[in-house]
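Quick one, T. Sequence first:
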Amino acid sequence: PRRAAQPGRHRPEPSQPQDRPRVSPLAREQTPSRPTPPPTVSRADFLKAAQARRQGTPGFLLQAGKRAAGEAAEGLTRVGYTCSKKVGNAVTRNRAKRRLRALARNVMPLLGQAGWDYVLVGRPGATVERDFAAMRADLARALSQVHAQTDGGRP
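Structure tokens:
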């Protein structure tokens, strides 16, 4: 039975029960077989990756660096994403970062190496507009090239 409207009450009661917890769309698309890699969080981590190896692709720039033996998350692969204002307005930058996250979710569990930090940097226009299958192939190629380089630092 529905309650009668009370004075001072402005919101109607919900028409359906809120028994089940709400699940965000991002949580729905994650699969147990391909979990999202843990993020590279601190600015220092981003700066270390920027000083390490780089590999450009048409859709994005990959920066990768191996962590030292005693650093945090030693056995994990960490991934960061960044898009400057050159990529576009906030909506475009967020869309580019969502595409980069989806790309990492698809490729990193297969080809990323434990103990490495990766940063995917969006490119103006290309990150948002490039075909996703082509970007996936680009990331696979970039990872193989970064890991094939000698330990002398930058290529």
